[in-house]
Specification:
Helix content is 25%, strand content 28%. The chain contains seven helices and 15 strands.
Length: 235
């Protein structure tokens, strides 16, 4: 796993599929998403590489229930004692109470999804995690008050986390950046693409300088304008 500093208090953790982020407030860390199953040890190693210990991570906030974002949550929560947060509509899938609904694929997305699935571990890791449920507008205790933004479409319970004090936005998979040219675009593998586009436009209206996506390179500087241009052209 690659660990990349984006800001002095913000690091990108890049997995073979997808990515997570670490945010620092003084001696306290927050993990945004948790990588695929079996990522607990790699996450602990990344934290140690920053001179910290797993117990410094007080919370794991999940943008949605897909395996490449929540697979490591239970394992790392057990290592760190961190509390896990997810939207109430996705929480049953994170807890393992129900199987999550599959995406409604566009034809062109199928080969991309098949290739990504090749890089995920076998689904034999203990995934279920205890979850504290959040809702649209809730404020969480990191980043000077991180606001939960409900952005349904990719999944019913997809959320973004907006840090107004720092103008930082974690979009989850509602927004992505192309691996080819870095172009900002709506996320793929959605339950409802039309709702994803509406959620994208909601995020584009926020005051944002740094936008951190579930897939693809973040935009560090002037992200709000980049998101608005992309939202205007998205269909």
């Amino acid at each position: 796993m690659d660990v990349i500093e984006l800001l002095p208090r913000l690091h990108l953790l890049r997995f073979p599929v997808g990515q997570a982020y670490l945010w620092r407030d003084g001696d306290e860390l927050t993990l945004i998403d948790a990588g695929p199953g079996g990522s607990g040890a790699a996450l602990a190693e990344a934290v140690a590489g920053l001179g910290r210990v797993p117990g410094d991570v007080r919370r794991i906030v999940l943008t949605h229930f897909h395996e490449d974002h929540v697979g490591g949550a239970a394992e790392f929560a057990a290592l760190s004692g961190a509390e896990v947060y997810a939207h109430g509509l996705d929480a049953p899938y994170v807890r393992g109470e129900l199987p999550g609904p599959p995406p409604v694929f566009e034809d062109w997305e199928r080969p991309i999804h098949a290739e990504a699935a090749r890089h995920l571990p076998p689904d034999d890791f203990p995934r279920p995690a205890e979850v504290t449920e959040v809702s649209d507008g809730d404020l969480l205790g990191f980043g000077g008050g991180a606001r939960v933004v409900h952005v349904p479409g990719h999944t019913e319970g997809s959320v973004a986390f907006h840090l107004p004090r720092h103008a930082v936005l974690f979009t989850g998979d509602t927004v992505a950046a192309s691996p080819v040219d870095g172009a900002v675009m709506p996320g793929v593998f959605n339950l409802d693409r039309a709702r994803t586009l509406a959620s994208f436009r909601r995020l584009a209206g926020l005051d944002t300088e740094v936008a951190c996506f579930g897939h693809g390179d973040p935009v560090v500087g002037g992200a709000g304008a980049v998101l608005r241009r992309a939202a205007e052209s998205a269909v």
